[in-house]
Amino acid sequence: MTILIDENEVTITAMRSQGAGGQNVNKVSSAIHLRFDIGASSLSAGVKSRLLALRDSRITQHGVLVIKAQQFRTQDMNRLDAFERLHALVNSVALPPRVRHATRPTRASRTRRLEGKSQRADVKSMRSRVVLE
Fold first, then answer.
1. 3-class secondary-structure state, position 68
2. pLDDT higher than 90, residue 121
3. pLDDT computed for residue 104 by the predictor
4. Least CB-packed of 15, 20, 26, 122 within 10 Å?
């Protein structure tokens, strides 16, 4: 399931990139800050709740996802990178997780486990000091 996000729901600001660079890095605003308000978006309620439940440092306390893209030298490439990362994050929670049904171990697996424990106990009991009478 693929969810597409409208560009009107995203705020994009350009800024200067961080890090080392030549004269160009001080003149050109090539880094992109993408801000996506999860609560005000057109996503379904389930996707919104799963997005907000993520333990991601890019999601603020107010429910705004902030993605900073500065990998490339051009603003257009960084904008595409930011949108791809946004879509990847949203699509990772698009499907609800499968419900886990509790199961019980089989009788054979229980007996194998207990036999292994008793064998281990026998090996460890052989390591003890021998008492001569």
1. strand
2. yes
3. 95
4. 20
Of 38 and 20, the one with more pLDDT: 38
Please list the residues that pair with 5 across neighbouring strands: none
Residue found under tokens 């603020």: 60
Please state, in angstroms and as integers, the Cα–Cα distance from residue 73 to each residue in 19, 29, 80, 102, 119, following that order.
12, 10, 12, 51, 64
User: What's the CA angle centered on 66, arms 61 and 67, to 5 degrees?
Assistant: 150
Burial class (CB in 10 A: 0-12, 13-18, 19+), 85: middle
Which residue intervals of 1-133 are DSSP H helices?
Answer: 45-53, 75-92, 107-126
Provide φ and ψ at 64, rounded to 5°: -110, 125
Please count the other Cβ atoms lying within 10 Å of the Cβ belonging to residue 17: 23
For the beta carbon of residue 30, count every other beta carbon within 10 angstroms: 23
Dihedral sign computed on CA atoms, order 65, 69, 74, 77: negative
Q: In the chain, what are the domains?
A: 7-92 (3.30.160.20)
